[in-house]
Amino acid sequence: MEQYVVKGGVPLRGEVSIGGAKNAALGILAAAIMTDETVTIENVPNVRDTRVLLQAIEGIGAKVKYIYNNTVQINGGSISDLNVEYEYIRKIRASYYLLGALLGKYKESNVALPGGCNIGSRPIDQHLKGFKALGAKVNIDHGVVSAKAENLVGGHIYFDVVTVGATINLMMASCMAEGETILENAAKEPHIVDVANFLNAMGANIKGAGTDVIRIKGVNRLHGCTYSIIPDQIEAGTFMMAAAATRGDIVIKDVIPKHLESITAKLLEMGCKLVEGDDWIRVIAEGEVGSTNVKTLPYPGFPTDMQPQIAVALALAKGSSMVTESIFENRFKYVDELNRMGAKIKVEGNTAYIEGVEKFTSAQLSAPDLRAGAALVIAALAADGISQIDDIEYIQRGYEDFEGKLSALGAIIAKVDSERELQKFKLKIG
């Protein structure tokens, strides 16, 4: 099994370039099958989640061609199967976007119920309620969601909770429905806007993405286009927290600073220095880092996907902090691992009470999910000694060449898959 081995205690310094947004890519790749023409998508992050989704898309008969590492061409004209198998879904939750895409295009889709990171319950009731409002009959049988309609007709859909997945799925399902669809209490995340912009580039008529009311006028068909995915705000935020935790100085390039405002606000409260350009941010954390309180909220609030990373930085800050998780109930599974490294964190309900410590010590760690895994790598980078992190396939779901980018910033990190490689690393670093 592959693992990361990290020798900590080195402040990260230098420049890092951010890849395309994983969460936007998953919606956009699914939406690309909605035309019979060829779609070229640039800045696709080469991570496990996007690769699995592309395999699922090939599995139903679409043609997928990698032009080079981060550009993909998709042609949905040859789709022959409207059934997405469990094999793909259990690896990656976002395969459920194929429900909305296939339903929108063919008025039918059959997709196995999703898996993904175990960070709490993520029901798909709002997706199904939306499909029904457009006129689809929805059944769940033997673990498969089937949606079918004679005709999709625009409707007025009010989401009971703010949901990114259902907002994206309903934008896709309704963009070729008859008449107008209104989505109220819609999610406002940057990747919602990106998926809407992509669909519009294919000829859809979507207005209001990025606000809580999205209006979609149905069109007869969608066409091919070339589109570039936005930068990944969570990858950028992860490197920003790595600078804070290791007392480093990192320039994070190829970002949209506006998307990072909730993260930069917290780093400023913690006493970090920030310098901002049009498409870059520099985080300087040399000296003392202070405490703050954080509550995760839907965008533009502080992202739940950044909660474990900021908790690591706060566990090494001076003073007491509180981190409240209001999105997912199972998101503190990394806390036990941090406490084994010397952190002082107590979880009560959905709040972590953090007492900052001066340093962590190394440990054998296990990544419980994608973002917590990245947070444990940051903790290992800040710790004294050599740490090993298992179950890194979670981390590889959402970060492209994580160890390579960290190494370029001066981190002493390697990916190893045998005891021999591990000993070689230890010998090399002395």
TrEMBL record:
Residues 7-406 form the Enolpyruvate transferase domain. Its EC number is 2.5.1.7. Phosphoenolpyruvate binds at residues 22-23. The keyword Cell wall biogenesis/degradation applies. UDP-N-acetyl-alpha-D-glucosamine binds at residues 93, 122-126, 305, 327. It comes from the Bacteria. Pathway: Cell wall biogenesis; peptidoglycan biosynthesis. It is an enzyme of class 2 (transferase). Gene3D superfamilies: Enolpyruvate transferase domain. SUPFAM superfamilies: EPT/RTPC-like. The active site is at 117 (proton donor). GO terms for molecular function: UDP-N-acetylglucosamine 1-carboxyvinyltransferase activity. Its main location: cytoplasm. The keyword Cell wall biogenesis/degradation applies. InterPro entries: Enolpyruvate_Tfrase_dom, Enolpyruvate_Tfrase_sf, MurA_subfamily, RNA3'P_cycl/enolpyr_Trfase_a/b, UDP_GlcNAc_COvinyl_MurA. Belongs to the EPSP synthase family. MurA subfamily. HAMAP family: MurA. This is UDP-N-acetylglucosamine 1-carboxyvinyltransferase. It comes from [Lactobacillus] rogosae.
